[in-house]
Amino acid sequence: xxxxxxxxxxxxxxxxxxxxxxxxxxxxxxxxxxxxxxxxxxxxxxxxxxxxxxxxxxxxxxxxxxxxxxxxxxxxxxxxxxxxxxxxxxxxxxxxxxxxxxxxxxxxxxxxxxxxxxxxxxxxxxxxxxxxxxxxxxxxxxxxxxxxxxx
Amino acid sequence: xxxxxxxxxxxxxxxxxxxxxxxxxxxxxxxxxxxxxxxxxxxxxxxxxxxxxxxxxxxxxxxxxxxxxxxxxxxxxxxxxxxxxxxxxxxxxxxxxxxxxxxxxxxxxxxxxxxxxxxxxxxxxxxxxxxxxxxxxxxxxxxxxxxxxxxxxxxxxxxxxxxxxxxxxxxxxxxxxxxxxxxxxxxxxxxxxxxxxxxxxxxxxxxxxxxxxxxxxxxxxxxxxxxxxxxxxxxxxxxxxxxxxxxxxxxxxxxxxxxxxxxxxxxxxxxxxxxxxxxx
Lengths: 151, 280
Prior knowledge:
Strand content of chain B: under 5%
CATH architecture of the largest domain in chain A: 2-Layer Sandwich
CATH class of the largest domain in chain A: Alpha Beta
CATH topology of chain B: Ferritin
Oligomer: heterodimer
Largest sheet of chain A: 4 strands, mixed
Largest interface: A-B, 21 and 30 residues
Distance between the termini of chain B: 62 Å
CATH superfamily of chain B: Ferritin, core subunit, four-helix bundle
Structural class of chain A: alpha/beta
Number of domains of chain B: 1
Structural class of chain B: mainly alpha
Order of helices and strands of chain A: HEEHEHEEEE
């Protein structure tokens, strides 16, 4: 009984977190991004993406606001640095949302253009508009696009 | 003529630990003093270089380079925040990362000389970045296995970012070195200027030795040969002469700095010192 109640409680927390958007890429949630490491009835453990990511503070504030609004005022937010976040933790749903938004999801093989699907692409700059993205260009459709860097 | 009373051992012990005392001296290598000092070194290296790189914001040769430099600065300041917050915890006097970054004077900074050197031109900035990031990447790879869990966690996270910095800077060294006559001259001058600050990176004083013995710090000499091999290979690919052997300049880890650091701190610390409670 108690275990079932606890599960329900974390299920409620997970569903709240699944609605908290990433401030830089609002089409994906913090759960899609893989930065929610674990959820307990009394606390949520998150990990930062990049050491200097300016969104980290905003993410924590947004999670706090969402938890408070859903009545989870007593649930703490804790930050864990280790194990270090990796783009491998972005969920399959998150990868699909990135692609639909025009950002190539992280890949270790050929980078496909999110506009036309061509793999004839090239890097323009290793650093893009945010720490997590690199700037790429498609040689077929000539469109520039962001690549979520493997990390 | 009356002589001064002898100094009591307990007073002497106090003096060594006095706040701000002995800024020019290495701290007594007890557990907390050494750890605090080591964390300042790690944090100040990142903070000062991050501040330097941010000076390029809006001035870089192209918008892509501008973004690269700003992103590297962000990574470094993120590292500094973690290391200095932890330093404040270890010190136990209620200072956090911001207090340490903005309310210490130049003699209390423990960064190496390399990171405080002025940006100069773009080639000089990239020469500095290459020599530093190739070192920091190896240092953090070692520190990821530190016996201190917090240092290990910060290093494990940051090493992936620093690998990017090191690759980017190495590519610019090659591109400018093996470029036009002018770009080659400028990169050669940048490397020549920065080379004298490299030996300090491998200085292993009592603090490093004390903490390395305990598995907390990394003795940089463990990766010196590897570092020198990479630097030699990149300079060769850039068709530049090998790293010149110059008289090393040491002292940053004990609070001796070039005049440049004071000017940097004036800019960096002005706002929080002038308006101490300012928020925005």
